[in-house]
Amino acid sequence: MKRVYKIASESSVILYFGESIDPVVSKEVQKAYHALKEAKVEGFYELIPSYASLMVVYDVLSLTFDGACERIESILSHANTLLEHASNIVTIPVYYGLDAGLDLELLCEEKGLSVEEIIALHVKSIYSVYAIGFAPGFAYLGEIDARLATARLANPRKAVPKGSVAIADRQTAVYPAQSPGGWKVLGRTPTAMFDATYKGLSLLHVGDSVRFEPISKEMFLKLGGEL
Amino acid sequence: MNGFLVQNGGIQSSIQDVGRQGLSDIGLTQSGAMDELAFGYANMLVGNTFNTPALEIAIGGVVLEAQGVMRIAICGANMQITCKEKVLALWQTHTLQKGDVLHFSFASDAQFAYLAVEGGFQTPYAYGSFSTSLKEGLGGIEGRKLKVGDFLLVLAHQNVGEKRKIQEAFVPSYPEEITVRLLKGYQEERFDAEAQRLFFGSTYTFKGEGDRMGYRLSGEKIVPSVTGILSEPICYGAVQIPSHGEPIVLLKERQTIGGYPKIGSVIGVDCFKLAQLKTGGKVRFCEVTLDEAYRATYTFYDFFKNIGVC
After folding, report:
1. Alpha-carbon distance B114 to B54, whole Å?
2. pTM as predicted
């Protein structure tokens, strides 16, 4: 697949692999991200993957744009022959009760589906981590079933509770901490998304696969969830 | 224990070094000192290495009580600092005695001042940096700005060195009108010739809309050919043009990814100048080549390297 290198700043280059949310493009981004990460290039300070692009922030005192691009290209052209990075499958337990799924009723009305149908549609897919951003550990997961696709709330909440599992457009995510937000909330997980005790700090990393598993209110509370 | 007892946290004061590295891929912002020049000078004066945590004071209003003998330096915005009814000069070292109380008034010329102390602050280290990220609530003192009652630990130094000051020729001024150098890139092609002419030909005003994350500038509105792009990584200094048409320059505590078109990036060393622009200040953008951007960056950091403190 063709990679386009562009200047982002005097100390960063951005690689474009495509222009849309596409599992094939995302796979390419993920492969490049892991190959560069494993190469541990001295002077590469940040590797930031997103849907169809990857940014490399480098030490401008030891590398130039051309030098950084050559280094990246050499690693990536070599990496194409390597085995794909084995991704984790992470299961996230979710309590989908109305007291946690703040927008479930709204969605039922909007979609003409029952609560059970909405939960079933959200649970049936295995999602891929396309990007992490917005907040530490906030993973953009795609894609949700087209029947669930929904716009963001017209009035974003000032405080979405920590652990809220929510959807917007064709994406789903878990709010790692209480924060403002406009995604529609279906439920809540007791699992921490970002924690100093995790290896790598974030539960999820770009390229991981994620599935949601419905749990009862009792189990949610037992696992440390708060309502 | 030596250090400072915070009697008043001021408008927004936080411990900062040059920022966090290597965790943008899981959404952690870089954070770090908004103006690395004043930050670097303050550390240099007290004999610290460049990346030693210092106290970043926005606007002022801070009151600190020294718990022991310490050598300090304060550089950056002039906040009219007094101690025992005497005014303390910026850009030079001072030796504090136990019980000395530093009063910071409010800056009128720029935004940030840096208080460095010999040996550095011994505040908690979080995820590879001493920097506070206010948005994420991590690093520094409980991830927040200082408040009354906080204690900033400093390792006691018995040998307080000679007085040092920055030569006048090297002391930066904080003009009300600045020009910052911009490297085109990113989605430059999303802005046609007319949009670019307007952008580089206009003077923008900083009306105080912004924080450590970035500054929004008011003035000529320019229209990109697209209103949004697929969310992509964001670098330091990136100039986003949202649909309202006014530029937002992203600074130290920027988000890691975002979906607004960007006309280019203000070079790092000029982001430091922009960060210090006072409310009401004016900004113009001028285009630089990559080579010019490199030269400006080398000059900046070589200055600290050459005197052996980088």
Report:
1. 6
2. 0.92
Chain A closest-CA separation from residue B222 CA (Å): 20
Higher pLDDT: A112 or B160? It is A112
Element housing B88 (H / E): strand B86-88
B94 found inside a domain: yes
| Interface contact A180, partner B, CB < 8 A | no
CA atoms of A53 and A20, how far apart (whole Å): 10
**Whether residue B181 sits in one domain with residue B165:** no
Residue of A9, A50, A196 with shortest CB distance to B265: A9
Q: Is residue B288 one of the residues assigned to a domain?
A: yes
Matching residue, tokens 């790598």: A200
What digits encode the pLDDT tens for the residues B116-159?
A: 999 999 999 999 999 999 988 999 999 999 999 999 999 866 66
- The per-residue pLDDT for range A150-178, each reduced to its tens digit, is 998 988 899 999 999 999 999 999 999 99
Q: Cβ of A7 under 8 Å from any chain B Cβ?
A: yes
Residue A226 vs residue A83, higher pLDDT: A226
Indicate whether B31 and B85 sit together in one domain: yes
**Which DSSP category does B188 fall into?**
G
Quickly count: other Cβ atoms within 10 Å of residue B310's Cβ.
16
Whole domain around residue B26: which residue ranges?
3-170
Peptide bond into A143 cis (omega under 30): yes
* Unique residue bearing structure tokens 């910071």: B104
In chain B, what is the straight-line distance between the N-terminal and C-terminal CA atoms, in Å? Answer: 28
